[in-house]
Amino acid sequence: MPSSDPEALRVLRERGFIQQISDEAELRAQLTSGRVTFYSGFDPTASSLHVGSLVPLMAMAHLARAGHRPIAVLGGGTTMVGDPSGKTELRQMLTKEAIAENRVGIERQVRNILKDAPDAIVVDNAEWLLPLNYIDFLRDIGRHFSVNRMIAAEAYKQRLEKGLSFIEFNYQLLQAYDFLVLRRKHGCTLQIGGDDQWGNIVAGVDLIRRVDQAQAYALTFPLITTATGAKMGKTAAGAVWLDAQRTSPYDFYQYFVNVDDRDVVRFLKLFTLRPLDEIARFETIEGAELRDAKAMLAHGVTAIVHGAAAADDARRAAAAAFGGGGDEAAIPTFGVAGGEKIVDVLAASGLAASKSVARRLIEQGGVRLGERKIATVDETLAATDIGDGVLLHAGKKSVRRLVLAR
What we know:
By secondary structure, this protein is α/β, with parallel strands linked by helices. It folds into 3 domains: 8-221, Rossmann fold; 234-330, Orthogonal Bundle (Tyrosyl-Transfer RNA Synthetase), CATH 1.10.240; 333-404, Structural Genomics Hypothetical 15.5 Kd Protein In mrcA-pckA Intergenic Region, Chain A. The protein is 44% helix and 14% strand. The chain has 19 helices and 13 strands. The protein has helices at 8-14, 24-33, 54-65, 96-113, 126-129, 134-140, 147-152, 154-160, 166-169, 171-186, 198-212, 249-257, 264-271, 276-280, 291-306, 308-321, 342-348, 355-363, 383-386, and strands spanning 20-21, 37-42, 69-74, 121-124, 188-194, 217-221, 234-235, 238-239, 333-336, 367-369, 372-373, 390-394, 398-404. The strands form 3 sheets. It has a 6-stranded mixed sheet, with helices on both faces. Strands 9-13-12-10-11 form a 5-stranded mixed sheet. A two-stranded antiparallel sheet has the order 7-8. Helix 15 crosses helix 16 (308-321). The protein starts with 7 loop residues before the first helix and ends with a strand.
């Protein structure tokens, strides 16, 4: 089936998804003249993806809307080795059982984002990596890799200074082999991913050329940081996850409704499906006038990840929490018995990533129980403080409704 949108690359570029392309003119011709099968990989190193993973997922959604076929590779095999890219030390080794459990949750999230692409393929590279004969693999695949070129790649160069294990050194070979397998099994000719993956992706392009004498392509996205330079998706309460059990839809919504003004338009392009001409009207406004744009961003991305009903609930809860009416019952609740230290409640309820973070919030004057500022880290909750429910605020953005546990 030919592409329904010959401007697929233009859309990705205008929305901010493109950092590097291995052969842009040729890839553009392929995307314009016919249907391209492409893939991105997701290693199940945790039970959930985080908001940074929305970049490749949304790029996949846009390419799928343009008529191309997505493959999501869940790295059950590569996770057993560990990707050194972007890491200063060896990743924690997970058991096969933990990897398999993580993969189930991540597959659900991937399929949810790609639900409008009925022919999307989701595969686990453990299927072809775990049965490999090591000696045969080295003779057939490893001989095509130059160690000099590998250690010149940024991902390996950074790690060589602190120590790179031999098992991690194999990761590039395995990722390149994934690309070769997917080309042979599914006709996949394009791999997309974060720019820290450029060396690994190009290694796959080169392997396909050497082994199958065929053309393949690499496309990477910029590594997304906020306007302040912080890593995308980091908060005082920890990472922002796609799993509702790890980050509630309300907290997820709050993360996006409170982004820096300078990030609003950029994030609307990256994390929603809103038309670009609709987003463009926000490019010339600032300050309080951006409130509608932030609400559009928060509701749009929450609806994509958690569904429209959850996004509506989160919007109503936010209105109640911050004085705009709405339904206070929709605010996430946390049960307490009375007598607990507020530091402990902040950490246990997810308002702070740890007790040390909670202490800092209090010391900086950023914690309120109802309208009362918490003055010291030693303050405790009395049952009379709770009543029928009271709001505990951490900073300007995060809140829980405390209720007495029954």
